[in-house]
Design goal:
Growth Hormone, Chain: A; mainly alpha; 0% strand
């Protein structure tokens, strides 16, 4: 059952300072950073590059919508990755799936950097782009759950939130690297940038993945999984168990995760495209997006520490309320069409996102028992990624278009979605004092 709240002694190490634990946290962080570099590099390129490289025959509004549609394909694939990798992660272990997911991501990202444009290959280029984006989505769908669980299942009970956050800290670090790399490439003259310059950051994935694999192969398997390994081999299929025994937690966890992912979709993807369309300088916008990743990183780190002291739910609720209050100011700042306005919007927006992101990994992991923790937490996070971030840029573009360029309709829909997320956070179980080994 999901009602066990006992604060039983943990069966985990007593410190985060040992060499093995440091290696685990480094692996969790580096692996996620590399995976999200690849994944968010595509998101940034979809806002700035792909409308001109793959959809140049369309008018600017339709080209942006089409580029965001290919972006959404990766988010749609993320739950599939969470399901597939979660199944094997719950059955045969966390470590093996992490190596596989990183290889898949690196190969897909490198191939995107080698794709011909539609001017060279016609619609075949778009088909290949979508297929590679789907592979990216499947890979990152497996990465997050494995990286988070390797950390949280090694960590002491009083520091689980902080340890689990290293998988989430990889997201802003990867976003920073992606935005910075594409920003540097954008300094080239437009003809060179849109011809070959944008490809360089994608090709750099080969080097990053090599570094990540070197670190990851040295990490030990989760002690909690080893403890339940024989049991895991004889239980029902993990997805069946999640759906039949833990449906409430699956729904609540997904809704809570959606809150921060709508901020990601609007502030770090749609807003980039909209600000540039409104007249803001492309390089200035990309530089601001890179700086905002630092705000996201720091806010995530601080809120993860706080959630170990005050609990997951209070921090999550505070972050969602802050997002609701800042929704319209963010949209108005982006609408101004200035780099300064965009900078304030994305810095504050991603800072609020970090407040939610910090406790989120531990919150989701503590909803499920060890035998299905990979599958359950991955489905929550990756399902939320599809609903909260994958379709958000395209929906935002459609709502602004339907409103004749205004942001009133978009703001109202966004606040309404966040209100549902807030209710889910209020109803969910607080897991700070739960013993991971005793959750059933």
């Amino acid at each position: 059952m999901d009602t066990d709240r006992a604060a039983a002694p943990e069966r985990e190490p007593e410190t985060l300072r040992g060499p093995q634990m440091r290696r685990i946290l480094a692996s969790s962080f580096m692996g996620s950073a590399i995976e999200f570099y690849d994944f968010m590099l595509y998101a940034t390129a979809a806002a700035v590059v792909f409308p001109r490289v793959f959809f140049a025959e369309l008018n600017p509004a339709l080209a942006s919508f089409a580029a965001f549609g290919t972006l959404a394909a990766g988010y749609v694939a993320r739950p599939l990755g969470g399901l597939v990798f979660g199944h094997f992660g719950d059955r045969i272990g966390r470590k093996g799936v992490l190596v596989t997911s990183m290889l898949a991501m690196g190969i897909a990202t490198t191939l995107i950097g080698l794709l011909p444009s539609t001017a060279q290959a016609g619609s075949v280029a778009v088909v290949l782009l979508v297929l590679l984006r789907v592979v990216q989505g499947i890979a990152v769908g497996g990465e997050w759950g494995g990286a988070m669980l390797i950390a949280i299942e090694h960590a002491p009970g009083g520091k689980r939130g902080f340890a689990a956050s290293f998988a989430n800290l990889g997201a802003p670090a990867g976003s920073l690297l992606a935005a910075g790399a594409l920003s540097l490439a954008s300094l080239l003259p437009d003809a060179q940038f849109f011809s070959w310059g944008w490809r360089i950051p994608f090709l750099l994935s080969v080097l990053l993945v090599s570094i990540g694999l070197f670190i990851r192969l040295k990490v030990a398997e989760s002690p909690l999984f080893r403890q339940f390994e024989d049991e895991a081999q004889h239980r029902r299929i993990p997805i069946v168990e999640v759906l039949t025994r833990h449906p409430r937690n699956l729904v609540l966890g997904t809704l809570v995760a959606i809150s921060q992912l709508t901020i990601s979709g609007i502030a770090s993807v749609w807003a980039v495209n909209h600000a540039v369309t409104q007249g803001a300088d492309k390089t200035g916008v990309l530089n601001s997006k890179a700086l905002a990743a630092i705000a996201l990183f720091l806010a995530t780190l601080v809120s993860a520490r706080l959630c170990d002291r005050f609990g997951r739910r209070p921090i999550l609720i505070g972050g969602i309320v802050a997002a609701m209050l800042f929704a319209y100011p963010l949209l108005l700042l982006v609408q101004s069409g200035t780099v300064a306005g965009f900078t304030v919007a994305v810095m504050v927006g991603q800072g609020i996102q970090g407040v939610i992101l910090g406790p989120l990994a531990a919150f989701l992991a503590e909803l499920f028992p060890t035998s299905v923790r990979f599958t359950g937490s991955s489905l929550c996070f990756q399902g939320a990624s599809t609903l909260g971030a994958g379709f958000t840029p395209a929906i935002a573009a459609a709502l602004v278009g339907a409103a004749g360029g205004g942001i009133l309709l978009l703001g109202g829909v966004w606040i309404g979605a966040l209100a549902v997320c807030l209710l889910a956070a209020y109803l969910a179980t607080e897991g700070r004092r739960r013993d991971l080994a005793s959750i059933r």
